[in-house]
Amino acid sequence: MKKKNVVVIGAGIVGSCCALRMACEGYSVTLLDKLKPGNGCSFGNAGGISSASIIPMAIPGIWKKVPAWLFDSDGPLSVRWRHLLKVSPWLLRWIMESGEERSTYSSKALKDLSHDVLSQYKKMLGTVNFNNLIRTTGHLHVFKQKPSSKGDFFVKRIREEAGICFEEFFDRDVNVVEPSLSKEVKYAILINDASYTVSPHRLVNTLVEAFEEMGGNFVQDHAKEVVASEYGVKVNTRLSALEADYVVICAGALSKELMKKDLSKVKLENERGYHVNLVSPNFMPNFPIVSGDYKFFSTPMEDGLRLAGTVEISGLRALPDWSRADILLRNAKRIFPDLSASGSEVWFGDRPSFPSSIPLIDVSPVHENIFYAFGHGHYGMSGAPGTAEIITNMIKGKPQKVDISPFSYSKHI
Fold first, then answer.
1. Topology of domain 5-44+202-266+357-412, per CATH?
2. E-strand spans in 132-185?
3. What is the Cβ-side half-sphere exposure of residue 9, based on CA atoms within 13 angstroms?
4. Eight-state DSSP code of residue 376
5. What are the two backbone dihedrals, phi and then psi, of residue 8, each rounded to the nearest 5 degrees?
6. pLDDT, tens digit, for every residue of 115-136?
């Protein structure tokens, strides 16, 4: 019996997980990307992998902080003013999603997507690669004082109801847990159920190597359009055309642009993020440090200390604003006063984000052989294995293990 052919467009963390999962299920899979695997948005993220990644970006009361952030030159949020009119519908939807009922709904969906992320990565990578790439240290969230806003109480409630293990530290105990922190940091939460990868880029490439060992084929080429054909679906690329029984769109922030007609109504926006990688820093923290005051990650990677974060709403074609990377370094020195390094490297990438923080994982409403898996925003590393399982079950017609209605096309328009 001839194997069914699948083309997965996008060789980031989501696409590589989808391709590997379907190759393991016996499909003939081609993974397609104009870049080498892991060289897009997945390259420069903070590396967080966690079943505790269940807090959406839109939480109760957060919209009240936006004006102050926008007028703070060192703030965590920036909107290019010439892009404001175009992005206004997305921002209004984001405000709507910040209500308590909607935020609770989003957190439940994120929990379902990432609840067994570590066991899935271990299965895909194998024990040796898993231990080499992933650290199960927990994440330390730090603050100058114990947060007490409406949103903070919401976050604590969601974590407690989800059974997430965490420990609180106050005053001097904070520096016992992490000696490198400023004495101004008076409160910290250690999320025990959180992990990270020492190299997002190497993680993606290891998954792609496993995919190729299963008979999968990676093709570096630019997908130009996806159209129906007499055989199922055809992907026209810059160099050729690929026929497939099924196509899975995992192209991140470029997914809407690739599928203009089918996805014109979905509320997808790119959130640009930056990182500064400090080469040979004078210390490494014991955990990834998440600054609750300045909204960024400091992750001990294999090639240095990565400072990652900020949200810039700018549009896909905007040139990078490297002052956003400078902000990361300034804020890092506020929580790590003794920080120094022999050098640094900067990067930017575009997160594919929906206002709810819930990705779109569904069959196309137009073509039954085209599937969507994109829009994971800040949670691609945590949500990719679960996404691969959902997509594979959809294509195979198997029952799902979780409620997939939050990921449907209809919820994203």
1. FAD/NAD(P)-binding domain (3.50.50)
2. 134-135, 139-143, 166-170
3. 32
4. B
5. -105, 120
6. 999 999 999 999 999 999 999 9
